[in-house]
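Inputs:
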Amino acid sequence: MRQFVHPSASDIRIESVLHALSDPVRLSIVRQLAQEGEATCAALDGGRPKSSMSHHFRILRESGIVKTRNEGTSHMNELRSADLDQVFPGLLTAILNAAPNL
Amino acid sequence: MRQFVHPSASDIRIESVLHALSDPVRLSIVRQLAQEGEATCAALDGGRPKSSMSHHFRILRESGIVKTRNEGTSHMNELRSADLDQVFPGLLTAILNAAPNL
DNA sequence: TCGCTTGTTCGATATTATTCGAACAATAGC
DNA sequence: GCTATTGTTCGAATAATATCGAACAAGCGA
C-alpha cells in the first residue's frame, strides 16, 4: 500500500496526543496494543467498518502514538512507547493505568 | 450566580479529561492554575470574550479538572489535583511537565 | 492473470465543538 | 434602588470529527 506519515519524536504535540486518546475507539485500540505488543488493523476492529478503523489509525499515527509498518498485505501497528515516554514521561503509563470503562 | 456541577472523583472519566485538555485554550488555563494555585475566570481570559471563557471553564468543571467556587461576584477556580491524582495517578503531572508550545 | 485479503481514499452525512455577541443573573457598593 | 462588575446562558454561525459505503491499490497465492 502506501508509506505512512510518522512524526519524529520531537514533533509530537501534547494536544494531538490527548485529542487522539480522548476517543473511546482509539483509546481501546491503544489499550489492546499495550497488552498485545502489536496487532494488525483487522485484529482490532471490533466489528467496525474498515474505513472507520483506517481513519482512527491515521489519527493515532499522525499524532505520534502508533507506528505502522507494512507486512505483506496487512499493516502491523505498535505503540511508540519509548518515543512517547521520552517526550512526555509517565503520560502513557498514567493513561493506561486508568480503569477502562466498564 | 449559580451553583456548579462538579462530578465526584469516582465519576471522572479519562476520555472527558483528555478531551478537555486537548484544547490549547483549556490546557493553558490549567497550566496557569497549576502555577498560581487559583484564579478567577477574568484573570485567565487572555483577551478572549467572556462567553468563550465561560464555555471552556464549564468543560473543565464538568470533566472534573477544575473546581469553581463563588467569591462575591467573581468565580474562583482551582485544579482538583488531589482528586485527579487519586483517580488517574501521575496523569496531571505528566501533562503539566510537557513543554508548553512556544 | 485472476481472485482474495487487507487497508486506504473518496464523498457524503450527521454529530459535536468552537466562537462570540447579546441578553440575563447575581453580588457589592454607593 | 441604581450602577458597575463578573460570569452565565442563549442563539447562531462556523469548523472540525465521526461514521460508513463504495471504489481503489497493493501484495500474495493458485
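Strands of chain B lie at 38-40, 66-71, 74-79. Flag for discussion at group meeting.
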